[in-house]
Every structure is written in structure tokens, then in C-alpha cells.
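Much of the work behind modern protein science is quiet bookkeeping, done one molecule at a time. The protein below has been through that process, and both of its lines are reproduced in full.
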Amino acid sequence: MTESDQPVIGLQQIGDNHVPIIFLCLTFTVNTFVVGILINKICGIDIMTALLSCVAGGVTDVSLISIDMGAETSIVALMHTIRLVSTLLIFPLWIAFFTRAVKDEDDEKMITSTKKSNDHRLLGNVLSVVIAFVLGYLGSLTGIPAGSLIFAMVGVMIAHWYIPQIKCDRFVKTCGQLFAGSIVGATITRETIIAIPSLFGPMLLLVGSYWLINIFYGKVCAKRGLLDLKTAMFAACPAGASDMALIASDLGADLAKIGLIQVLRLIYSVSVMPQLIMLFCSFIY
């Protein structure tokens, strides 16, 4: 699936699928706090680091957020990297096995190809970067945890609804990943690498919890008629929207719904979860 084939998020699509979206976000929220507290109690990792390690968000996003929130970024980055690799390697095979008795439904695809000039693409990329930079800077002034990331992300998303020409080509994404990767990589030291064996327990606990959520969410959604089993299980995989959509395309799942739920899950993870974790650590724990 190319960039042009990815589903466009609209208010109508969100409204039609609001129940499974809310259900998944609530499920991941409960899992974050339950497993995070267990990791803190059993493994001795500080509560902020443990909770952020359990957030079902992107590796880079959550790692950058952990810097703002004073957590151990190296541990958060390692935990999320293992979670992502495990999800991509194990979950597709598990879902294919678990849903082997489910008949594939016809996958109707509507692909609209449009030709755009290089000038329009350049302008769209420049607009997205400028909007992200300005709103990200304003977000950093608010003092909100991950304010830069939240303001930039939401601002570009809203702008894209009203200005479809706004783009973020692969080159722009790669540049952003290079800068973000260098920031996260600078937090990993020799001591971090030595401590990897001590993280096996937390990693197994985290991956196991996501496996249980995958089964639970898939079964409930299928039983209630919210989503078909394959689509629900792929939507509940804690990995990237593009990665899951690409893998799910071979198994006859609903790519549009998977992409929609995965993207909104990521938005929720990096915008709402840091605030909940900060409140929990400040007033409850």
C-alpha cells in the first residue's frame, strides 16, 4: 500500500467506528496502568518509566515524550523497540493461526490516482513543516507534557482536513526520523546495554499483556458485531498503522478500518496518555 492508497481520516469514518475506537483506547489505558504498576513493583523500575514503557504509542514519539517527563529514556526506547519487533514478528502469525477458520471476505479497493505537480508537492511539504514548527514551538511554551508534539500533530492534522494539498513525503519523514533517532540514541549508554538482560522480565510481561488484549478485543468486537475478527485483532496490534495495514492486506482484513483505528490509537497515546500518567504520578502514586 503506497502513501496515496492509505485511508484518509474523516469525521464520518470516526463517527461510524467510534465504539471500537473508544473501547480500544480504554483497554490500552487500563493495560498501561496495570502492567506499569506491576513492572514498578516487581522489577523496581521507577513508576514514570514503567508507565511510559507500557503506552501503546510509537517508539520515537513515546521516547521523546519520556525526555520531557523525566523518565529513563533509554529504558523506554528499548522496551518499545522490543514491543514493536515482537508485534511485527509474532502477532501476524498468531492472528493468521487464530483466524484460520474465518473465511476471507472480498476486499474491495477503490484507488483514486491523481497527478500533482512537483511544485504543489513541495508547497504541501513546506506548509506541513511550517505549521508543525510554529505550533510545536507554541506547545513547548505551554508547559504541557509533550506539548510540542501534541500541538504540532493536532495542528497538521486539522490543517490537512481543510487544506488537502498539505503533504508529508517520505523524504520529510526520513529527515524527522533521523533527528528524533539521534536524540533518543544519545540517551543510550554502555550501562543501558548492560542492563538489557534485567529487562527480559518486564518485556515478557508487556508483550504477554498485549497478546491477551489482542484476543480479548478481537473476541468482544466480533461477538458484538463491531468489527470482524481479523480486522479487530489487527487493529489491536500495538504497531504502526502502515505496518499492520500492509500485513493485513494479505489476510483479507478491512484496511480502512485498521488504518483509522491505529492512527487514532497513536494520537490518543501521545496526546492523552502522558497527561493521565503525569496526573497519576503527581496525585495518586
The chain is about 70% helix and 0% strand. The chain has one domain: 3-107+188-284.
